[in-house]
Write a structure and sequence with these properties.
Elements: E1 9-13, H1 21-24, E2 32-37, H2 40-49, E3 54-57, E4 69-75, H3 84-94, E5 95-104, H4 112-117, H5 128-135, E6 138-146, H6 150-159, H7 170-183, E7 193-200
Length: 206
């Protein structure tokens, strides 16, 4: 989705330690890079990776970051936020052109054990995220539902039988590597990961 658009500036909301910064840096020209996160410790790690990035500590549910960017990226954050609409409205204030969101879809009740361990408060029903984006002033450009069959349902069912304190040994590591390669065989038409690229719509919508 990033490769399909041109941008000179980008911010990741919920950037953590900056693991997605290299994705944003794949733009054909140097970009003005920024990151925002609730965790100051995560921002310190992100800063060690990219000293030139503009890093801001904030709760996206309560406020927008200071500034505006061609691209706002938000990956695997919305499923943790009780007030996702407030977060999307604040991201709208920061977005000059495009918002790219990745989050979890599917049946929350089916995977409740794992979801709650991970701090998730929702999974999005098909079409729900798109509707919320439009309500917050975005126009949806592209949507991918990804993950069938190796992530959803296979990996998700296996996760639901695990605990977050499970030991990560050799066998688990090998299984994770195997699943990683199998994930490339997943369809982009069906699954429990939803990726949406939206552009700024009517600035009068709040």
């Amino acid at each position: 989705m990033l490769k399909e658009i041109d941008y000179a500036s980008a911010i990741e909301v919920g950037c953590g330690a900056g693991h997605n910064f290299p994705l944003l840096d794949e733009a054909p020209r140097p970009i003005r890079l920024a990151g925002a996160d609730l965790s100051r410790e995560a921002l310190q790690r992100a800063g060690a990776q990219r000293p030139d990035a503009d890093l801001q500590a904030l709760d996206i549910q309560l406020e927008a970051a200071s500034g505006s960017w061609d691209v706002v990226l938000c990956s695997l954050v919305l499923e943790h936020l009780p007030d996702d609409l407030a977060a999307l409205r604040n991201m709208r204030k920061m977005t000059k052109r495009h918002l790219i969101v990745a989050t979890i879809a599917g049946d929350f009740e089916r995977y409740r054990s794992w979801e709650q361990q991970m701090g998730h408060v929702r999974n999005y029903r098909r079409g729900e995220l798109e509707q919320k984006l439009e309500a917050c002033g975005f126009e949806v450009e592209r949507v991918i539902y990804w993950g069938f069959p190796f992530y959803s349902p296979l990996a998700r069912l296996l996760q639901n039988r695990m605990t977050s304190t499970a030991a990560y040994g050799t066998s688990t590591s090998l299984a994770a590597r195997a699943m990683y390669w199998l994930y490339f065989l997943n369809t982009t038409r069906r699954g429990d990961v939803v990726l949406v690229r939206a552009r700024v719509g009517d600035p009068g919508v709040s």
